[in-house]
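help with this:

***
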Amino acid sequence: MSVHYIPLLAVDGGGTKSLCFLFDEHGQIRGQGRSGSCNYQGVGKEAAVKELILAIRNALEDGKIMGDGVIGEGEFVTDCAAMGLAGLDTEYDRRIIEEFVKDALQHLRIRAKHLIIENDGFATLMGATGGQPGILMIAGTGSIVYGMNDQGEIARAGGWGHLVGDEGSGYWIGKQAIIHILKTKDGRMAPNKLAAHILPYLGLRDAEDLFNWTYSTRYSVEKVGELSSLVSQAHMQGDSFAQSILIQAAKELFACAMAVIKRINLTTKPFPIILQGGVLYHNAFVREYVTDQFKKYAPYGQIETKLKEPIYGMMALAIDHYHKINEGQ
């Protein structure tokens, strides 16, 4: 059987789209491919495999390694394939994802001498820091904090989903607002501006309508996450209850960051801090509160604004591994 050596391979497989790059050891891109989501938790294992195959195949075709979607005879060999895939949160997830990644590569007759599989959040961290040590805090609909030190040790905190975690996220903020409105209805909290913002947005009349909506099929994580912007509006109008929700959100996010910093001992050297997600992008109060906490308790941390796509983080991992292999020869 003939063997065809191909460039290094990186994949960023997110919840909405997947991207594959073929590139050389200097980071020169030789081919690109795109496809839909390969998050098996969202689309199922079979669909995830198909989308992963499609992204890689499109990159091979773009790089003129494969033509017309038909693989020729023989085997394709790459020194390293690095993949950052959504849905990898537990060891159970890892077993499933490793299996379908190997199925996809086998289908394409690609043999990776070394295969790196990480969570897409880790890929985002690597892309944002260029593969260097740092902290990534994400607070969108969900929330999570990732970190890596100069020894390559990785830690994460949060990200346990809306049912039992995601503190400080848009969903968490929206849920707290709903709880506050219902407590106000009971007389357990003083009147506030939250209901005046949230009820009209949802097309509801009163707190009882809100209760019924919460337990109906109209309720969704995404819709509750949208309510966080209304909490911000109430806060800007001077509502102290809205402010208390946002302060607690910022404290929860920073608690995750501190846990990660302590676990990987990011305390003696400068490191970048990347803040991402709608809550941190659009809510100046939460962002400033978190930033102030970093300045107080993590003086070596530096807030960065220049960001790269996650795919570049996986490229950095593959290139680093390639050079380590060749230095050892």
Remarks:
- The mean pLDDT is 88.
- The first strand starts at residue 3 and ends at 5.
